[in-house]
């Protein structure tokens, strides 16, 4: 039924748009995912979303403990429209819930922070399995909850006096390097056919005017076809 719906909806956009969707889907990945913990500056949060979308990262996990995550569309440039944003905001401290969810989904928890067990970005091994990159607040960084439950620690080599990059710059540098490293490897990092189909439908719904009405019409047509009796010619 999903494939039929996809075919039906795709007729409501141009051929060029369908080709673009197909091209982007072939480059989407969930092998790498990003988790943003308590980011409170909208322009930084929005810049990270834009970077994730540009590098084909589909899922971004939003952890809201003290700070509400706000998107500044002038910076994000509509990128959030094409991403899957998963929010954790039900409790005063939501970081552990996000970590548990990601670990259950098979992700390595990678804290982007200075630590005695830190590993250079240049040496990071993408082949050990899917990984979630955690980025913390602009001032205090990641919480002890993330640091204590992280599987690995990642740092960007720095050769000046300043100890760290701005969060949006850090995300861009790390995702650029690891995305190239992953895509040039023999690892299967793409989406499966079912994931592609589901995303394609979601993107079409966000592109077409009045998608609910069109989908309702599709369901009515399929309902009628199912109820139509088969007349034997024998």
Please provide a brief summary of the model.
The protein has 234 residues and is of the alpha/beta class. The chain has 9 helices and 7 strands.
List keywords for this structure.
seven-stranded parallel β-sheet; elongated; 234 residues; 44% helix; alpha/beta; 7 strands; single chain; 9 helices
Topology readout:
Layout: H1 2-10, H2 15-26, E1 32-37, H3 42-54, E2 59-63, H4 73-76, E3 84-88, H5 95-104, E4 108-112, E5 118-120, E6 131-135, H6 144-149, E7 152-155, H7 167-183, H8 193-207, H9 211-227
Parallel strand pairs: 1-2, 1-6, 2-3, 4-6, 4-7, 5-7
Helix pairs in contact: 1-8, 2-8, 3-7
Describe the structure.
By secondary structure, the protein is α/β, with parallel strands linked by helices. It contains nine helices and seven strands; from the N terminus they run H-H-E-H-E-H-E-H-E-E-E-H-E-H-H-H. It has helices spanning 2-10, 15-26, 42-54, 73-76, 95-104, 144-149, 167-183, 193-207, 211-227, and strands at residues 32-37, 59-63, 84-88, 108-112, 118-120, 131-135, 152-155. A seven-stranded parallel β-sheet has the order 3-2-1-6-4-7-5, sandwiched between helices. Helix 1 packs parallel to helix 8 and helix 3 (42-54) runs parallel beside helix 7. The chain is elongated and about 65 Å long.
Helix count equals: 9
Range of strand content? 5-15%
Secondary-structure-based class equals alpha/beta
Mean pLDDT: 92
Structure summary, number of beta strands = 7
Q: Tell me the Rg in angstroms.
A: 21 Å
Q: Considering DSSP H and I runs of 4 or more, what fraction of the residues is helical? A: 40-55%
Describe the main β-sheet briefly. Answer: 7 strands, parallel
Distance between the termini: 31 Å
Give the SSE order as H and E letters: HHEHEHEHEEEHEHHH
- The coarse silhouette is elongated
Low-confidence stretches: none
> Strand order of the main beta sheet, please?
3-2-1-6-4-7-5
């Amino acid at each position: 039924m999903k494939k039929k719906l996809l075919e039906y909806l795709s007729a409501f956009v141009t051929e060029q748009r369908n080709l673009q969707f197909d091209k982007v889907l072939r480059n989407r990945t969930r092998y790498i995912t990003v988790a943003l913990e308590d980011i409170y500056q909208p322009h930084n949060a929005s810049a990270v979303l834009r970077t994730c979308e540009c590098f084909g990262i589909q899922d971004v996990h939003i952890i809201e403990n003290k700070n509400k995550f706000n998107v500044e569309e002038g910076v994000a440039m509509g990128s959030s429209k094409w991403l899957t944003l998963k929010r954790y905001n039900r409790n005063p401290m939501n970081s552990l819930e996000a970590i548990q969810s990601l670990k259950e989904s098979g992700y390595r928890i990678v804290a982007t922070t200075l630590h005695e067990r830190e590993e250079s970005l240049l040496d990071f091994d993408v082949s050990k399995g899917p990984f979630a990159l955690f980025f913390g607040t602009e001032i205090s960084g990641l919480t002890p909850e993330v640091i204590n439950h992280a599987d690995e620690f990642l740092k960007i080599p720095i050769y000046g006096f300043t100890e760290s990059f701005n969060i949006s710059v850090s995300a861009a540098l790390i995702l650029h390097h690891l995305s190239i490293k992953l895509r040039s490897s023999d690892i299967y990092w793409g989406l499966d056919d079912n994931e592609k189909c589901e995303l394609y439908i979601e993107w079409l719904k966000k592109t077409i005017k009045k998608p609910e009405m069109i989908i309702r019409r599709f369901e009515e047509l399929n309902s009628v076809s199912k109820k139509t009796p088969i007349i034997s010619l024998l």
